[in-house]
Specification:
Elements lengths: L1 E10 L2 E10 L2 E11 L6 H4 L1 H6 L1 E2 L2 E2 L6 H29 L2 E10 L8 H4 L3 H22 L3 E6 L3 H9 L3 H9 L11 H18 L1
Parallel strand pairs: 1-6, 6-7
Antiparallel strand pairs: 1-2, 2-3, 4-5
Helix pairs in contact: 3-5, 6-8
Length: 207
């Protein structure tokens, strides 16, 4: 089987992904996908820190009686769904002759709070915690599949790529823009960033 790499750009409740396989002229994009990390309507898994902190969007709502327990339940379901969804993608890749071997996981610069009360005490921090949680859900699922995970700073991704790949910034952009996912998935700037993350992860781990 040929080794494939996935790039992941996470959001609240979902992630934009691009899966590539490297060739002599660079990456070929096998597919792009939107992966949901919670079942429809399961807000506790979709946004566990919001629920634990008593937020519904920007609106204040009553906190659960036991925020710590609520958070643990939501994270557990989020991770279970992420594992299932990513496992399904890996199976589909294997059916086409590809093994999910590498992952470029785009990270943010937000830091986790020191304790639960600080984590759920402000809406700004809650969003940081939600992003960290989604990325951790994907990391755990990827490790479970045997993929090597490379964290990559989303803010410096495109600036760091030329040195890492030995190509000019314009060459990298033109190569990615010229691609189209073989599954006819979305191909916006975000999916191109995910593909670049996958490309960098595969190159780094293949050396």
């Amino acid at each position: 089987m040929r080794r494939a790499a996935i790039g992941i750009s996470a959001h609240l409740g979902w992630a934009a992904t691009a899966t590539v396989v490297l060739g002599r002229s660079g990456p070929q994009v096998l597919r792009s996908d939107r992966l949901e990390i919670a079942r429809p309507g399961d807000r506790q898994a979709l946004e566990p820190f919001h629920v634990a902190g008593g937020f519904h969007g920007l609106d204040r709502v009553p906190r659960p009686a036991d925020p710590k327990r609520s958070l643990a339940q939501g994270l557990r379901r989020q991770r279970r769904t992420t594992t299932r969804v990513l496992g399904k993608l890996a199976q589909e890749l294997e059916a086409g002759g590809y093994r999910l071997a590498f992952a470029g996981l785009l990270t943010s610069r937000g830091r986790a709070a020191e304790d639960l009360e600080k984590a759920i005490g402000s809406h700004t921090q809650i969003h940081i915690e939600e992003g960290l949680a989604v990325r951790e859900s994907f990391r755990l699922a990827l490790v479970g599949l045997g993929a090597e995970v490379v964290p990559l700073d989303s803010k410096s991704l495109w600036a760091d790529a030329p040195e890492a790949l030995g190509l000019s910034a314009s060459d990298i952009r033109s190569r990615l823009r010229a691609q189209r996912p073989l599954n006819e998935g979305a191909w916006r700037k975000e999916e191109q960033s995910a593909a670049l993350a996958a490309w960098l992860a595969a190159r780094r781990r293949s050396r």
